[in-house]
Design goal:
Layout lengths: L4 E2 L12 E13 L9 E10 L10 E10 L2 E9 L9 E6 L7 H10 L5 E2 L7 H14 L7 H15 L12 E2 L18 E5 L9 E11 L9 E10 L9 E10 L2 E9 L9 E7 L6 H10 L5 E2 L7 H14 L7 H15 L12 E2 L1
Parallel strand pairs: 1-5, 9-13
Antiparallel strand pairs: 2-3, 2-6, 3-4, 4-5, 7-8, 10-11, 10-14, 11-12, 12-13, 15-16
InterPro entries: DUF7770 (IPR056672)
Protein name: DUF7770 domain-containing protein
Length: 366
């Protein structure tokens, strides 16, 4: 299952939360398909909206997002969200009513028991709506959602295609499920496709100016932690104002989607920082004129997209540490940036030892 599901951002307490609504959501320009020259189509995902909970969880929804993290093989991202829906400025949503008492665990169990986490995208890396369509069909077959849910989605898609044909390619792009046993896909270390997933990066943002780099850590609960969360670290490239894009930041997030091999998620964000309720942030000053493209090129030229996590699936901060060192060596960030991060990490580990394990967990570059 490690190659097909990435659920480290799912808070364990949320698994037993009650689902009050299922929102089928498609966002503007979440990815630009191959050869599109930046013309974005909608990317589809599911949000499980949660009922009120007295166990202290801040989550308002759980995201189910099938992405081609190791093309053509997909990874199902399951993540607790503090928002009830996507933060995309341009999006469409279709509410689907669940039966009373439906839980997040039931939805995940249905997906896994039907082996719907085992999905391959088409040659262009498309097929998210086809996956979602089939999941909704299984939920309807199991009588876990309203009668006619699939027909409702079909009618919604047809109407949106009529209104915005460029965003909804027809015929619908279809991946395929691989129900029979196959060897789990190994990360292809000879191609960039296996190490970087940048379909959520708006092409226009590559040449945007970076005004600040924010080192951010927010809570996730690792496997076997029984809900005791530790921090997951990532980088936000905060962008200068620009009328050609709504993005306010570009996220750089190294995650073990195919353990131990990592995938660098590069994504445009309409928020300037993480929207997690529990987080810590360290601002790093960038040199004048630094662009997103320069940062990505530095990572790729130093082969820092090729990263393996440790046996526990940890090592995100070690990756950031090394990227920041390369940026400092290239004089693209303030002098002493690495020492600043070291001091910040030491102080936070003193204040929140349960959230920041010591010694520092280290992966390795290959």
């Amino acid at each position: 299952m490690t190659a097909t599901i990435y659920d480290k951002a799912l808070r364990p307490v949320d698994k037993n939360r009650r689902v009050t609504q299922i929102a089928v959501t498609a966002c503007d320009s979440v990815y630009a398909p191959m050869g599109s020259e930046g013309v974005g189509v909608f990317h589809w995902r599911i949000y499980l909206l949660l009922g009120p909970d007295g166990d202290g969880s801040a989550s308002r929804s759980v995201l189910l997002d099938m992405v081609p993290a190791n093309p053509p093989f997909g990874t199902l991202i399951i993540a607790s969200e503090d928002n009830v829906d996507s933060d995309g400025l341009v999006k469409i949503e279709l509410p689907v009513a669940p039966v009373d008492g439906l839980t997040v665990r039931q939805v995940i169990d249905l997906i896994v028991s039907n082996r719907m986490d085992r999905y391959k995208f088409d040659a262009s890396g498309s097929g998210c709506l086809f996956w979602l369509w089939n999941v909704l069909q299984q939920l309807q077959n199991a009588r876990l959602v309203e009668d006619g849910a699939v027909a409702k989605l079909q009618a919604f898609h047809a109407e949106r295609t009529r209104l915005e044909p460029s965003r909804h390619p027809v015929p619908i792009r279809q991946g395929e499920f691989y129900y029979q046993h196959v060897d789990e896909p190994r990360q292809d270390t000879s191609t960039m496709a296996a190490t970087i997933y940048d379909k959520a990066l708006r092409p226009v943002d590559k040449d945007r100016r970076v005004t600040q780099i924010t080192v951010t850590a927010s809570l996730y609960a690792p496997a076997g932690s029984e809900g005791v969360g530790i921090f997951h670290w990532r980088l936000y490239l905060v962008l200068g104002p620009d009328r050609v894009s709504t993005s306010r930041a570009v996220l750089l997030d190294m995650v073990p989607t195919n353990p131990p091999f990592g995938t660098l998620i590069i994504a445009s964000k309409d928020n300037a920082h993480s929207n997690a309720l529990i987080k810590i942030e360290l601002p790093i000053a960038s040199v004048d004129g630094l662009t997103v493209r320069q940062v990505i090129d530095l990572i790729v030229s130093n082969r820092m997209d090729r990263y393996k996590f440790d046996a526990s699936g940890s090592g995100c901060l070690f990756w950031i540490w090394n990227v920041l060192q390369q940026l400092q060596n290239a004089r693209l960030v303030e002098d002493g940036a690495v020492a600043k991060l070291q001091d910040f990490h030491a102080e936070q580990a003193r204040l929140q030892p349960g959230k920041i394990p010591l010694p520092l967990r280290r992966g390795e570059f290959y």
